[in-house]
Amino acid sequence: MLNFDDANKKGKEAMDAMLKSYSEVAKSFQAIAAETAEYSKKSVQDSVAHFEALSGAKSIEAALELQTGFAKAAYEGFIAEATKLGEMYTDLAKTAYKPYEATIAKATSAA
């Protein structure tokens, strides 16, 4: 027999879990957006500083040395940022999946 109180309770629990999950996912997206904006700002500042230093170079050798150092630093910074963002997206996926983990595990074990 259908018990409306139990159905209401389960519906409320599901809605609460969904809202909590949505809130956590939204916070993760905000953190990713903030991190991306901060990296972009730093990248532009570094580029401007590099251009200023490059424009003051006294010789082609000095300019090439500056350019090589800048390219290396920019590449390393990009790789570090990409790694950090990858970890943030992985955490986001885990957070989004968590409320459904038990249901999926139950469904796959029954199959």
Give the total of domains: 1
Q: In terms of structural class, how would the helical and strand content be classed?
A: mainly alpha
Q: Count of DSSP helices? A: 3
Q: Largest beta sheet, briefly?
A: none
* SS strand fraction: under 5%
Q: What is the molecular shape?
A: rod-shaped
Question: Roughly what percent helix?
Answer: over 70%
Q: SSE string, helix = H, strand = E?
A: HHH
Number of beta-strand segments: 0
Regions with little confidence, pLDDT below 50 for 5+ residues: none
- Mean pLDDT across all amino acids: 89
Distance between the termini: 27 Å
User: What is the radius of gyration computed over CA atoms, rounded to a whole number of angstroms?
Assistant: 25 Å
General description of the model:
The protein is an all-alpha fold. The protein has one domain. Helix 1 runs antiparallel to helix 2. The longest helix has 52 residues. The chain is rod-shaped. The mean pLDDT is 89. It comes from Ferirhizobium litorale. This is Phasin family protein. Pfam families: Phasin_2 (PF09361).
